[in-house]
């Protein structure tokens, strides 16, 4: 029991520190975060307390309002922190890979399956919606990368649907902050065993990551690729 208590005590400061760091990061991009959180908490608590007085149970509704105010504040804080993080990542090479890496269960992601010398890159995600190719970079240049990858997919897994998305803010593109939502809305057409089989077949292709070490998340702007192709041989 003592060990468990010590572990819990050690974990709590770490969580509090992480929350504080997240708040500071969010506040740099969202100056009104403090006022918004305070307003959400006060309004939620006030509404339930007022209802409690109206029905004659201010203590019970006040306690419930306090708990719900904390929950509402946490939800709003999480969403605005996520929005701030996306805002800081927007436009950075490799930002889409960072989003895909945290897309959740049911998806297997492979960053940088194709790339050119201009750092236009294509990432691959496999799930029950099929194969999703996510490109980031110059919209005109990434189209050729996407076309080449789709042809490759058709040769290896012709029976699996292939979707392609270009991350950006232009017409026909998907904003970084909406990438996860867009992928989750794709129709699910594969079963679990079919997803596993698809991943097994795609592993035979290899990818750029297996041949050249790349850092996770946004890629350094000074990184250069070998001349003469999309990937090293």
From TrEMBL:
Where do the TM regions start and end? Answer: 33-53, 59-78
Q: Which residue windows does the record flag with biased composition (Low complexity)? A: 219-233
Q: Which domain of life is it from?
A: Bacteria
Q: Which Pfam families match?
A: DUF4191
Keyword Oxidoreductase present in the record's keywords: the answer is no
Q: Which UniProt keywords apply?
A: Membrane, Transmembrane, Transmembrane helix
| Region annotation (Disordered) ranges | 210-233
Q: Is Transmembrane found in the keyword set?
A: yes
What is the name of the protein in this document? DUF4191 domain-containing protein
Species name for this entry?
Streptomyces bullii
